[in-house]
Specification:
This protein is an alpha/beta fold and 288 residues long. Helices cover 37% and strands 14% of the residues. The protein contains nine helices and eight strands. 47% of the residues are buried.
Length: 288
């Protein structure tokens, strides 16, 4: 499943990094939560905090003013509700990073999973579910785009009928996911524009697109109508959003906020220091 791929990547990227379970500063969910400006609705990706129990991560996310937790399995979607949060992006059977919509033999299984799980997502207030292109494995980008459009055309009415976005993720093929097909914004736009559904969007991963093409703010603002969700991560290394890397995150967030984007920006960096302290610092930085 796709979450297994992310966990494998976690082991590779964070090899040798010790992850603490809690920041040294004590906190309580009874303390008044941080009040954010509301221009950027922030979330946090579950897989980056594997050593932190999900309930604990949700409680802390609520405390620091986040709105949800990203990339949860179906049986976890209700957990954030205990803390006034939602699952902002769910796994619903959309294939894996390596093997998904660009191959027609995968379409039936993905459709079956989405028919089962997207109505559940709607009931659990999960606004987005994730899917992927898959790797090229010798296939041309033109053929892969045609196949992916065909697959999404089978799926789009499920999203439309349930008010849930189906988001295909943009990933880099240079560093982390060699041979992945949906590795440039232009390819992803070609696909979602051909499908032409208000419920089929791109998951614009800022970390991955900085590696592949840069020009972040202009690309985001030009194409915001086709972008359903964002991920963060420091470049290079996919660690903290701080002075050790090259993206000016407050500037990118201002660029997103200027579009009046109403979806979510989920932090998907692998902490190299105290994980929850790093999450709080990222939330502060992106609260523009």
């Amino acid at each position: 499943m796709s979450n297994v791929s992310r966990r494998n990547m976690l082991k590779t990227v964070a090899s040798g990094v010790a992850m603490a379970s809690l920041p040294s500063v004590t906190w309580s969910q009874q303390t008044t939560p941080v009040q954010r400006k509301g221009n950027i609705r922030q979330s946090v990706s579950r897989w980056c905090y594997q050593k932190t129990p999900l309930d604990q991560l949700c409680a802390y996310a609520a405390q620091i003013g986040l709105k949800g937790v990203d990339l949860l399995e179906v049986n976890e979607w209700e957990v954030p509700h205990r803390y006034g949060l939602i699952c902002t992006m769910g796994y619903a059977g959309g294939g894996t990073i390596k093997d998904a919509l660009n191959r027609t033999e995968n379409h039936a299984a993905i459709e079956e999973a989405f028919r089962k799980n997207i109505p559940v997502a709607a009931k659990a207030s999960v606004p987005n579910v994730i899917t992927f292109s898959g790797n090229r494995n010798g296939m041309s980008d033109e053929e892969g785009a045609k196949n992916t459009v065909a697959g999404l055309n089978r799926l789009k009415k499920i999203g439309e009928d349930n008010g849930v976005n189906i988001c295909i993720e943009l990933l880099n093929s240079k560093v982390d996911h060699h041979d992945y097909m949906c590795d440039h914004t232009a390819w992803g736009l070609q696909v979602v524009q051909a499908v032409n559904s208000p419920r089929v969007k791109l998951l614009y991963d800022i970390y991955h697109m900085q590696i592949m093409e840069g020009d972040l703010v202009r690309t985001i603002q030009k194409n915001i109508d086709w972008l359903g969700h964002f991920h963060t991560g420091g470049v290079p290394g996919r660690h903290e959003l701080d002075g050790t890397q090259e993206v000016q995150w407050d500037g990118v967030m201002r660029g997103i906020a200027a579009t009046k984007f109403s979806g979510y920006v989920a932090h998907e960096f692998v902490p190299a220091r105290d994980p929850l302290t790093s999450l709080r610092q990222a939330a502060d930085l992106c609260d523009v």
